[in-house]
Known about the structure:
Four copies of one chain form a homotetramer. Chain A is an alpha/beta fold. The first copy, chain A, has helices spanning 13-22, 39-49, 58-63, 79-89, 103-116, 130-140, 167-170, 174-190, 292-295, 298-311, 319-338; strands spanning 5-9, 30-35, 53-55, 69-72, 92-96, 120-123, 147-155, 196-204, 215-222, 227-233, 241-248, 251-256, 263-267, 284-286, 342-343, 363-364, 367-374, 380-385, 392-397. The first copy, chain A, contains eleven helices and 19 strands. The relative contact order of chain A is 0.13.
Amino acid sequence: MKxxxxxxxxxxxxxxxYAMTVHGQRGRDRVGVVYSRTRDRAAEFGRRWEIPEVTTxxxxxxxxxxxxxxxxxxxxxxxxxxxxxxxxxxxxVLVTKPLGRNAAEAKRMLDAVEAAGVFGGYLEDLCYTPKTxxxxxxxxxxxxxxxxWVRSREAHPGPHSAWFWDGRLTGGGAIIDLGCxxxxxxxxxxxxxxxxxxxxxxxDTLVHPITDEDNAVAFIRFESGAIGQFEVSWTxxxxxxxxxxxxxxxxxxxxxxxxxxxxxxxxxxxxxxYVAEKAETAAGWLFPVGDEVSELGYVDMFSDMFDALDAGxxxxxxxxxxxxxxxxxxxxxRSARSGSWETVDLFAWRGGSTPRIATSPETFDGQVVIKRExxxxxxxxxxxxxxxxxxxxxxxxxxx
Amino acid sequence: MKxxxxxxxxxxxxxxxYAMTVHGQRGRDRVGVVYSRTRDRAAEFGRRWEIPEVTTxxxxxxxxxxxxxxxxxxxxxxxxxxxxxxxxxxxxVLVTKPLGRNAAEAKRMLDAVEAAGVFGGYLEDLCYTPKTxxxxxxxxxxxxxxxxWVRSREAHPGPHSAWFWDGRLTGGGAIIDLGCxxxxxxxxxxxxxxxxxxxxxxxDTLVHPITDEDNAVAFIRFESGAIGQFEVSWTxxxxxxxxxxxxxxxxxxxxxxxxxxxxxxxxxxxxxxYVAEKAETAAGWLFPVGDEVSELGYVDMFSDMFDALDAGxxxxxxxxxxxxxxxxxxxxxRSARSGSWETVDLFAWRGGSTPRIATSPETFDGQVVIKRExxxxxxxxxxxxxxxxxxxxxxxxxxx
Amino acid sequence: MKxxxxxxxxxxxxxxxYAMTVHGQRGRDRVGVVYSRTRDRAAEFGRRWEIPEVTTxxxxxxxxxxxxxxxxxxxxxxxxxxxxxxxxxxxxVLVTKPLGRNAAEAKRMLDAVEAAGVFGGYLEDLCYTPKTxxxxxxxxxxxxxxxxWVRSREAHPGPHSAWFWDGRLTGGGAIIDLGCxxxxxxxxxxxxxxxxxxxxxxxDTLVHPITDEDNAVAFIRFESGAIGQFEVSWTxxxxxxxxxxxxxxxxxxxxxxxxxxxxxxxxxxxxxxYVAEKAETAAGWLFPVGDEVSELGYVDMFSDMFDALDAGxxxxxxxxxxxxxxxxxxxxxRSARSGSWETVDLFAWRGGSTPRIATSPETFDGQVVIKRExxxxxxxxxxxxxxxxxxxxxxxxxxx
Amino acid sequence: MKxxxxxxxxxxxxxxxYAMTVHGQRGRDRVGVVYSRTRDRAAEFGRRWEIPEVTTxxxxxxxxxxxxxxxxxxxxxxxxxxxxxxxxxxxxVLVTKPLGRNAAEAKRMLDAVEAAGVFGGYLEDLCYTPKTxxxxxxxxxxxxxxxxWVRSREAHPGPHSAWFWDGRLTGGGAIIDLGCxxxxxxxxxxxxxxxxxxxxxxxDTLVHPITDEDNAVAFIRFESGAIGQFEVSWTxxxxxxxxxxxxxxxxxxxxxxxxxxxxxxxxxxxxxxYVAEKAETAAGWLFPVGDEVSELGYVDMFSDMFDALDAGxxxxxxxxxxxxxxxxxxxxxRSARSGSWETVDLFAWRGGSTPRIATSPETFDGQVVIKRExxxxxxxxxxxxxxxxxxxxxxxxxxx
Lengths: 400, 400, 400, 400
């Protein structure tokens, strides 16, 4: 296992989470350089996270001779320039979410990285939460049968930084900020090889005086017949709502990543202090999260990225995944305007083919069995369908 | 307060819940007659619920001289005939959900009842759960501000009776069975006077060998801009999932009616026994509900119906409400076929008008305030938008 | 079923809950008279609950010719006089909890009622919550095996009325106020026929400037070997904490009656309004209860009382039960002073005998089986104990 | 930060968790040698965790020239010999819980390590869960006021290995296995400087055919007046119950470490597979934990140990803490036999002194204020106590 030296581009909230993760616990990798457009921010970030070198020269940060990995944690409109520069420098590049403001921009980044032959990773932390990883493993083991439906919800009262609110810089509103998480979470559960075909989306701006959406809901139709559903909001009250639900033909999974994780605290009086990301109050019932960088997936995400880099393999989340997410978001915005299902346009689909969800109906005496139920007296009731007439009947069997 | 004498039409699961409720606790009203098409079922139901008279003659049950209220708890395709007969007999009529197989059928029932001038009530129990009633009161008190979004979810592994699976008799699949609940729950939270304008719906038949949908998801757009979202499934695993969520500009409500109500039980070994409606297992972790007829709304529903009848007022849930629900379901089925938003067609809207959700943005130094946040050092950060340029900036104030 | 006419003695919080229950829904029984020592309070209570007659003459209320049931909802130190007067009047008497300030007082009431031959009921609502009743039924069905341990916890920030704080009037502090509930809940779960033998208790006054305990914890040892554990507090922060846990040899039950019942609400801004009994805040995350009088057991309690009266049977909670609870509390106070286990003194035990919890150990090859576990490879691991040497070994069997 | 090379003594469940942690994520420290009494177990453990050297010679493992830290993960009766050997070798020693079978044994280990002047750490993972660490920080910040009561509960159906059941090897039953966790969790919440004075404990053997206790409950009285309460069981059904509750004068904390952490899964059919430590079933509702080694505290524990070693400081959990835990357990066993409170005997108390919990009562017009409540009409009700007579009265103020 190699120890990596990282240049961090950006000093915002997400860059802080990244530095906290890499420098947390007993990790062998270190951030060696941090870049910000503003000298003060770079210096403060460097002090806080004990980073030896700070700079306002992005190219210098990228080309630093000790650096072998560059993390792009900049506002969305600055991703493309940065990614191309890293690719040109021949370094591994890890890009925060969303990859681009739209699929075209994302594709240009993907192309640049693939052309340069460097390692690329998509920093989608919420696909790496320990609960999510274990759930994906359970689904792979068949615990849920075929996945039929996934709900991913991310909602809070709105972002902390000014640039997030400017759709010209970000590419949109709550969908670009939060929907990108949900879409990739949904893909992780229905299967990365399950092609997203169409999107139906509704957006609205209900509370904030902005031009982009502060609320959106959408359905994504996958090749298997599975439906993904996302709900994103910048107007939620009560903290940060991060929940996923998966329904399968054989089981169910419910994940709550933030507000109900077995950590409940009441306090009568304000002592200030940070409670949890986007908590709204400092008194009353509060719901902190234990180790946010672990529970929100940052730890497993960076382990996967660096392990994959060491092993010469693709990480779990690639820049192509980031591109697919952008393509789904493009379709969502188109659908919100057209009021119809819109096709997800992909320049290429690399995921193969997923068969339609199917079950072979059981038969009984030439009739199709719809349902079996054990009655209180131990006998069994079958609901049967006559394939000729389409009529349904009850039939009680057994006992003894 | 008058004691009412009821003729119960039907002896299925729902009729049993109704009888259990009316004859439960120390109630003053009684079921005096029960009707079933089958003599044995009528007799068994009568014995079980201590009903003095049983009959296989529907008209006799309706016209019974002691009866002043008739409860229609029959399969959907038999509602119209029964309701018209009750109206003709000049008795009060309470009809189980859904009112009709479609809006046209529902309207004919509504017309018959209104023409006869008799009392009509729509037995939508889930709008009467104590949690729902108290939540509606809180929303009326302004606790949530304007409601922006409601999610209502009802899912279980599929109905118990054969006729439920036959769309020719019911009018559809999971939407007709479960969606009717969700739609009226959503209307209760966004406001009964908030006109449902359009529906976008996706349906599929993923597991059961039937022609109607076993899964559906939909959005309903209301006049205020609020969005209702329903998810119904006959393929859910894990029991019966009954949850509602309401988001408002000032608050949030989460209701869980079944699987997580503060009652958790583990048992290592099967002793049989009824755990809860649609529970799938009799061992492992189980989640019973305390008093199902109270917690699922039956008690408050019948109290409202009989109290309204005594007072000469409309109940909270009227046959017109049942008609609106059918109209929304009709639009959902149309949308599932067209893949587009479909208009909710109503012969008349009796709910008045609801203004668009609106907030007056605060200004600061001629800029629009997007968000205020208290910083750890006690100062306040404002995110501002320049109305001329559309640019966003951070501005820190105060402290001291 | 007869309709009863009630005289209510007392107009405090608990009398209000009782009136709300009896006059709630479509009940046939009515409060006909209310008595208070204060005319204004009697008048206000009468108006609020639509009670036709109000009086400040307790004997007049008891002897009112229309009254057949008297509910004693007075402060503790007034129970004895009231109960004796009702017994003397030959009316049915229902007494709120605790029965007396101590076992001697409780015994005098019990004696008076039994000597008069009138119906007596002990109004311990928390033994009648629907969750509790259903759990008791499950335990009776063997779902949990033998009950080994029960925890009952009741905690809140302290009572609403002045007299509650005065141990001279009540008989003690938090134990008398809250422990009486817990003790009878515990008895309901370990079995009413399971004699409470000894109590070990610790009390302290940590927060409030009073002479009686504002916190107490205790263990109760029952004849079967089962342990009851209660925790009561007048210094809890966060609302009212009402939880019970039952462990058995075959299963587990967890009940939450108040703060986590599937009803969760966040509100950013105060609109005032009653949230729930003993809620501490009107903003932030709040946890209301649906129908408090149903979920806290009042509805089922009065149904049981009046049904038992109609049937000429004993109710589920008798005055003898109230006496046993007082005897357990007396032992708790003695133990808190002595620092040792103290015997529960009972003038007579009417519950029969309960055998010691026992399991017949399985044997394997002459060894005692301590535990069986299925290994990941399908084989089974047995932990065995050699009865001769007392040595423990692992033994893996099977597969196939 | 230095990279440490570890010799692991032992290959059981806990040694596996330790190796999983140290070798997990991107850690810089490595296990270089593993020792087991059995060659096969050593070899299998080495293969599984990629440990280069395996041995059945404990002294060789300890003295291995590359090793600077030895982890003692052996059965309890083997701790003393191993710890003394490590101390003699002049290496840092980290010992799993409990430190000894009793306080005398623990003290001999403590003395050996302190005499040798080597680094010693007590591997009490549950004091290091992220939830616990953050809670301790909140308590330190005054969020809860003074801690009045802590409940720590650990219960499961019994241990996996034969030796755990043999009190001669372990020092006892469920208290030695589980109570040691609870005691140190309680100390972490009431404050490490808060001296444990006395213990009251009840034990019983209710289910398993063993001589040691399979159930125990206890109270611990601390110098401040705070009460710790632990409940341990080897007969719990439903998985592993790991919960802590803290009550303070200003707030409340509830932690659930295992069965309810926002991860809920239902599966209809067995696919086998590991769900979570001590889960009892592989179907029905299951409650896995995301990243067990993180959420149960192993990650933060080893980070603290190695960071403290690097910094030349004491870790959060020292061998003296382990000794105190043994002393509390000794008192618990004595109390279970005597039926009285027993003193915690400590050869020395290193924690200083903690004042009695105290609040200065507010006064109003010369009366003591017991409670303030805001009435629905905005006025405030004060419950007052007359210091002369001890009488309590209500007093309503304000409004306006």
